[in-house]
Design brief:
alpha/beta; Spore Coat Polysaccharide Biosynthesis Protein SpsA, Chain A; Serine Threonine Protein Phosphatase 5, Tetratricopeptide repeat; 9-stranded mixed β-sheet; 23 helices; 9 strands; 55% helix; transferase activity
């Protein structure tokens, strides 16, 4: 076995990514081993430019089999394994050689930072990606393959390093993520049938979550939180997924219980505290909401990158935190918190939106041309706050046109849809409001306030059967919300009163 570092990779049709990957390590690895599983693009041409040793492997729906074939071809003392859509950070490339000085059997945890511009949140995961070569080391798992279990059996020492790997492969469309999840789910399910491994089951739950099959995701994570074998961190993540599902279904009591359990297991995750703050705000526990928000903000500021304790972490953007804090300040009337958030935001790239927000708050806009230059500064993190302010305009024609512009950009946002519908109704465009809500029913059906708006319009248009159907849906799905149930009962009283009145006005024959 030669000294030095071997880069081990498996590829198929990676011409889009491979050059950047190999370019990031060309000066620090002594050998590049590429195992191709059937490329028909320029992948191998790119690999040849970096003097890679190229081998071919017949794909058998098993990532570990391909990885292990690649390992067998590596001759270096140390193995670095990457995917084509990854690249080693420049600062890490300068440090990696120093980690090879030890004679011990060592595996180094590296941080893999995945980017997602669609939701504007990054995720970081820590895996063993750099380790001393050993002919007995083998990958396991048909997908989400791991080297760690094998190295554990070989009594390797695991060390947390600050090596950073950038992962761009999930910076793709929602449908692209679902395609990957469907592929992974098939292989994971086959793996789980062979060996009921909790890590594999966790990955199955994540795949269901990405596929928006929340019923199966929920069942999977409910099983995992009862496991005695699952690590504390992955159990905390399982509780977090259950909390997210419950929150999105407006089951706030369950969401609070689940995320509180996650925090008990791991209180260093900023996302957990932010979610708990949102749950408290929905429950009108404003004081507790502020406390959890400030904890999340502090954890975000204190962590430079990723806490070494967390093997998996959602990286919140500072903009997401600050805009939520601002929304919390507006809803609670906390002037100090509002000014603090605006001050933070004014020091970031969000200065244009801060100006937009201040003008919207004092209702200084009169026509659509006044806001055109600001629309590019509106994001998923600040849209709800802006929608709330615009909906309060006395000039309803302007508000309607402004919300129309926002709806074109954020047509899957519940707040935009319901405020736009209400504003349409206020300018006597009730039929348009109804069309908007009915056309987006799959989006608004999880929001009881949006459904109540729909009921209100049905009653206004004397569509009593449809109104009653929605009222029964709300009463069944949101029974835990006393305030919602009270409103539903009030609407039902109005409904029966209107029906009786309608019947009394019918002519007798």
């Amino acid at each position: 076995m030669a000294s030095g570092i071997s880069l081990s990779m498996i590829v198929k049709n990676e011409e889009q990514y491979l050059f950047d990957c190999l370019n990031s390590v060309k000066n620090i690895v002594d050998e590049i081993v590429i195992v191709d599983t059937g490329s028909n693009d320029k992948t191998l041409e790119i690999a040849e430019k970096f003097n890679a040793k190229i081998y071919h492997f017949y794909w058998i729906d098993d990532f570990s089999a391909a990885r292990n074939f690649a390992l067998e071809k590596c001759t270096g003392d140390w193995i670095l394994y990457l995917d084509a859509d990854e690249r080693l950070d420049e600062s890490s490339a300068k440090k990696i050689k120093s980690l090879t000085q030890t004679r011990e059997s060592v595996g180094y945890y590296c941080t893999i930072k995945s980017y997602d511009s669609e939701i504007q949140r990054d995720h970081t995961i820590r895996y063993i990606r750099f380790f001393r070569n050993n002919p007995e080391a083998k990958f396991t798992g048909k997908v989400h393959e791991q080297i760690t279990p094998s190295l554990e059996k070989l009594n390797y020492k695991f060390i947390h390093s600050d090596l950073l790997i950038h992962h761009t492969g999930y910076d793709i469309s929602k449908e692209g993520k679902k395609q990957k999840a469907r592929r992974n789910l098939k292989l994971l399910s086959e793996d789980y049938k062979i060996s009921e491994n909790d890590y594999v089951l966790f990955q199955i739950g994540q795949s269901y979550f990405v596929l928006e099959n929340y019923s199966e995701a929920k069942n999977t994570f409910l099983k995992l939180i009862k496991s005695e074998r699952l690590s504390k961190q992955f159990k905390a993540e399982s509780f977090s997924y259950l909390a997210q599902i419950s929150f999105n279904e407006f089951r706030s009591a369950d969401a609070e219980k689940f995320i509180s359990n996650a925090i008990k297991l791991n209180d260093t995750q900023p996302f957990y505290h932010l979610l708990l703050s949102k749950i408290f705000l929905r429950l009108n526990k404003v004081k507790e909401a502020k406390e959890e928000f400030l904890k999340s903000l502090k954890l975000h500021k204190d962590s430079s990158g990723m806490n070494s304790f967390n093997l998996q972490q959602v990286n919140l953007s500072i903009e997401e935190l600050l805009y939520y804090g601002l929304q919390l300040a507006y809803q609670s009337g906390d002037l100090n918190l509002k000014n603090k958030m605006l001050d933070y935001l004014s020091k970031t790239k969000e200065m244009i939106f801060v100006e937009f927000l201040k003008k919207a708050e004092v209702k200084s806009f009169n026509q659509i041309s006044d806001i055109t230059g600001y629309l590019d500064s509106v994001t998923q993190f600040n849209i709800s706050l802006l929608t709330h302010l615009i909906s309060k305009y006395d000039n309803k024609e302007f508000a309607m046109n402004a919300l129309s512009q926002l709806y074109q950009k954020f047509n899957n946002n519940t707040d935009v849809i319901k405020q736009y519908a209400l504003t349409l109704d206020s300018v006597n465009k009730t039929q348009d409001a109804l069309k908007l809500l009915e056309g987006n029913f799959d989006i608004v059906k999880s929001d009881p306030s949006a459904l109540l708006y729909l009921v209100m319009i049905y009653l206004k248009m004397s569509q009593y059967e449809k109104a009653l159907e929605i009222l029964n849906t709300i009463e069944n799905n949101f029974a835990q919300f006393e305030e919602v149930v009270t409103k539903v009962r009030a609407f039902k009283e109005k409904f029966f009163r209107n029906v009786r009145l309608h019947k009394s006005e019918e002519p007798a024959y």
